[in-house]
Amino acid sequence: MKLLPAGMFARHKPTANEPRVITINKGHGHLKYKGNYTSTTKYNVVTYLPKALFEQFRRVANTYFALVAGLSCLSISPVAPATTFAPLIFVLGVSMIKELAEDIKRYRADREINARLVLVFNTNTKAFENRPWRAVKVGDILQVQKDTFFPADLLLLSVPESADGLAYVETINLDGESNLKIKKALDQTQQITLDTLSDFTGEVRCEQPNASLYTFTGNLMLAPPVASDQQTIPLSQASLLLRGSSLRNTKYVYGTVIFAGHESKVMMNAMLPPSKRSRVEREMDWLILFMFALLLAMCIIGAVAFSIWTHHLSPDQWYLAPDRAEGDTNPNRPGVVGVDSFISSFILYGYLIPISLYVSLEMVKVFQSGVFIGKDRAMYHAQTDTPAQARTSNLNEELGMVDTILSDKTGTLTCNMMEFFKASIAGVSYGQGVTEIEKANARRNGSAMEAAEDPAAVPWKQASFNFYDKRILGGAREQEARPALLKEFFRVLAVCHTVIPDGPADPAKIKYEAESPDEAALVAAGKVFGFFFYKRTNTTVFVRESEGGLVQEREYEILNILEFDSTRKRMSVICRTPEGKLKLYCKGADTVIYERLASNNPVNNSMKGVTREHMEQYGAAGLRTLCLAYCELDKADYDAWQQKYFEAKTALTGREEKLAAVGDLIERELLLLGCTAIEDKLQSGVPEAIERLANAGIRIWVLTGDKQETAINIGFACSLLRNDMTQYIISANLPEVLALEETGKVEDAYALAHSKIGEQLQDALQCMAEAKAADGGDNALIIDGKALLHALATDLKGQLLQVGQQCAAVICCRVSPKQKALVTALVKTTGDTTLGIGDGANDVGMIQEAHIGVGISGQEGMQAVMSSDFSIAQFRFLETLLLVHGRWSYARITRMVLFFLYKNLLFGLTIFYFNCLCFFSGQTLYNDFYMSLYNVVFTALTPLIVGTMDSDVNREMSRKYPGLYQAGPRNRYFDLKAVTGWLLNSAFQSVVVFVMVMGSLTPLYADRHSGRTAGQWQTGATLFTAVIITVHLEISSVIDHWTWLHAFAVTFSVFIWFVYMLIYGVFPQNLSQGVFHLFEEVMATSPTFWLLIVMAPVACVLPGYLWRQIRSHFWPDDKRIVQEIMVRVQRGELARMKSLHANAGPLSDKLMRPSRQLERPSFINSGYVPQDKPGASGYFTPRSSALYANDCFDHADCTSRNPVMSQLNGELHRNPFRHRTARKLHTHLRGVDGDDGSGKGGRGLHSKLRPSSGSQGNASEVSLTADAKINAQRSAAEADSANDTVKAFSPSAQPAVLPQRLGADSRQPQPVRPVRTLMPASAGSGPLPTPHAVPHQSPPAHTGIAAAGLTASGRSSSSSSSSSAVGSVSADGSSGSVSEVSYSHVTPYVEPTGNDDTGLAIASSPLIEGGGGAGLPQTGRPRQPRPVQRRGLDQV
Description:
There is one protein chain. The protein is an alpha+beta fold and about 1450 residues long. About 40% of the residues lie in helices and about 15% in strands. The protein has 42 helices and 39 strands. The strands form eight sheets. It has an eleven-stranded mixed sheet with strand order 14-33-32-31-15-27-30-29-28-37-39, with helices on both faces. The longest helix has about 40 residues, at about 875-915. Mean pLDDT is about 75; it is low at about 1-10, about 1135-1310 and about 1320-1435.
């Protein structure tokens, strides 16, 4: 905790527009500004107790218990005050001690920082002296040594050891970036030395303290004798040294203090992140209010009943002496009696509210986040030594309830490690090679793509450069048609940047420190092309240019740098060439560069179209493009512009806006040079992670700054987009809109674009409704930033949200950081739980706006991480974070909360029942300390263990069956049904246990040899014991995963109660009162007691336990099915399976050829739940399709049955009515008529499910088609071999067969769905770039039964179909069927890439009740593509 230093309350409050005026080297500093003393503690000696208590009583529950404790001091209280104050003090004390311990750590850290020493110039002694940081004042001149931290925000005056005035600074404590930043001293102050410091003075006028780390606005005023005349020098961020950063690779620097202490920028940023609460916590508040309402109802009932009894019936009870009754028993004062009864009941029934719930929840969440998430090796990135980190523990369970993920692309889905890959220069495309995106799209479309690298390209490949084209490498550019334009193109790469070279001027050894990887890649490309940038000063860039075998050293004087930002989307440099010419070099997004090109220039006119085509090609390949342009400036025009630039540069208010406006004046009449194309590769595991997240029913929105074509192709490469999706493309780049913009009618263009976007959104909704009615597939929305600007308007955002909610994937292109936050806020309005994930400063708004913010520690620093709730190193770890830890945390927390409510309601109701027997007089059945310790001791440990250790399925099954995750977004474990079930069960058990105990311990019978009957305290202790055992037996019956900790918690909690009864009973009688020696002398000798504490809990728990077992047996849900697989694998009942691909023999080679259009083996079992069968009532197993019949019918491996499937089928055969839909199924199958293949017709399909003649036992076969006779050609040896694989699980009866819905098999190839471009068909200057497509191929026939469009003969019911499904259904899977549908309890599939730790390779295909959760199909093997169809409004 902190002390209160003298003078800390002195404050100066400037007006909003008042500049901060600082006199440098004043000597006594500026007392009107804050000093450099800092404190991060929450409390001090004076404020600790009141503030800590205030923090505790902000929780409504604590306020309630404090009220109950206060009321217990009244004379009418039924309990002793000590029994209510003790648990309250314990709970508050634990929390307050925790707060105190954390604050003491902060105080000690503050004390160490404030005591650090720094050299401060003393104007009296004219020398530097050591002073602690806390003594530094604004205006002081400091000398900061190498490898030390800056104690305040300093203006860099001089770097004596550097002629250029350059200092290297590390800002890892500010933004997490480990790369060094360059800071430049002012040219006018660089010559300051120790001898001239005493005479140096000046005045700084700058902005007021603010939290912006990356901006600084101010002016330095110098006057004689320091300067030759009055000078005003503009100041910027480039000369500001921030507190918390450190000096590197520089011996020492001089600087003057601008902002000190809590006014420094880093301290202004030291604020608490936005407060976020999980959905479970918010709903828990309502449950607590419900319990409180129930308590009030019980109190009112008791007060009214007792008042009526006292007034009307008590006068007849002569033994109560009603004529002498006073106060709360006076028959003549029923109102006072009722109030007193209400207060006593309010105290007595207070145990309905769990006092230890919040403390227990906090303990569990801290353990989950710190141990399970923070220490998970599966989320540890070894390359960067970065583990996952939970920066808050409040949102653990929220991770298991995510509906929508909003993700950045660059650095989040990609590596953000840029490589120069291709370029378009002077209208010619250069560069060869295939990007990772092109390879992925080729695999998706089934086309082979050569990936062999040209041996001649190997010598040219280096860091950030993966380019080869012999036409322009090695000096060959002179032979090109326009060598002058190539030369200017390469000069832009070498000059137009802010990169700092580090190391010797050797191309092989130099390193480039850049603000972004893109910029470093461009400079590295210029070096390879012969324009080697090797040195920079404040005003000069040095470049070695190679031409014709000669190397020239050229100096470019940098006059102005117009920096890049997300609004300008471009960067420009104005320089003076060695020839004395003034040139402006510019690079930026194509949209802004094309707007500034000279309109009547023939070179531009010849290059604009072809360069745009090249950019579209590069974008389709997933490359990031930048346009390059330049112009030569007139000296007179530049001088006039320079004056405006200086005025904007020295403005103290609105400097950024004024600089942008002035920059726009000179960035005109540009000459186009071409464009660059940089590859940013996908991170490892991104496609697989996105596929599983999509299978989990989570919608994914990607918000990127890339062009539309780039974003679409990356979407396909990372499995965000699929061939079977209908793409809705919404764009504002319409011809009529562009025409209005070109004529300067901006307002008219905006209005027209707004109306067109509204029409496109409405058309999209209509198309989606029609497709849904026609049982269409999934949708995907692609919208660009310009259209998004209109769609986010008040009148259109509702339509945008409706469209987005009906899409499995949404891609927003050309999105600004502000739009990311707006889109996130829009999605939140639906009530969906949102997760924002990104890696850069431009993602901070999105991360903080989302319910859950996840930061990725990537190449763009740690800004996103420091603003996030959770941080990971790679996007693929998000899968584990959500599907494993999120799902576990949600299940654990909800079960823990419901158990708290259950046990408190059960306990409270027994008190209420006894009061009913006592005419609501407030008499208690239990000892006061029994009730006080019920929550904090006797039932405290078990919920803690359940909340931390329980798990329904292990992490492997959680990832292989992502459909299990849907329980969280649907809130299955904490919805009204679940809560009502627990509360009704509690009420039922309270009645059972109360009636059994009270009925058995009647005073009419004696159960001991002494002849004494059970008294009040014996009855109460017996009932309390039964309650303790009942609640622990109940939680034991629902625990999914038993460990020794669970067993210890349950047994220890019950054991500690018996120990307490024994010890408390031997206390002196004035302390133990009615329970003096109660246990060992009375209860332990009573056979009734021992019988009751066994029979009563069993009677309470057994009905619920039996119901759960019956439900899981006949109506199992997804979780139960997966648990069955997991348990049987662990028991060794199921054989450990290897990848089918590894055992497929010659077949696997055929299937993995590119011509087969496969990324994985085809025989993958797909778990699916029909839409009309809630609760996982059945699963089918697609084995193959007619497409693969020619490849498979000769190979026994094609139909070798999955051992898990065979075993589970066997379970079904032994109990064919295990599913609740079995009877309906058989009725349905009997009613389907069709041709049996023999031409007779008229036979029901059910008749075809009976075993074929001659088949017995495991060899029974059912023929679906006449063509299936091909399968009978298999030899008996092959059949026996197949049977041997699963003989331990072979059934003896024929399985029932579920009808397969058309299109349900998402693992089978599907046709490409159309791209619906929701704008006029004439829009644009040509066809939109689309993903690679191959000629049309008819989709394979689905292999279902009647519902799939097949007759009983297996032939297609459509006359246009030319193929028929071929197959049979076998009881043991050993028949030669090509297409097979099996009805089993579960459908795993074999993973083609190997086994997990359990050896069970079961698929990532989801198990989602209702058929896929949020309308998302299970994805898997690539679909058969056909040409992408584009439609205009007239066609759609």
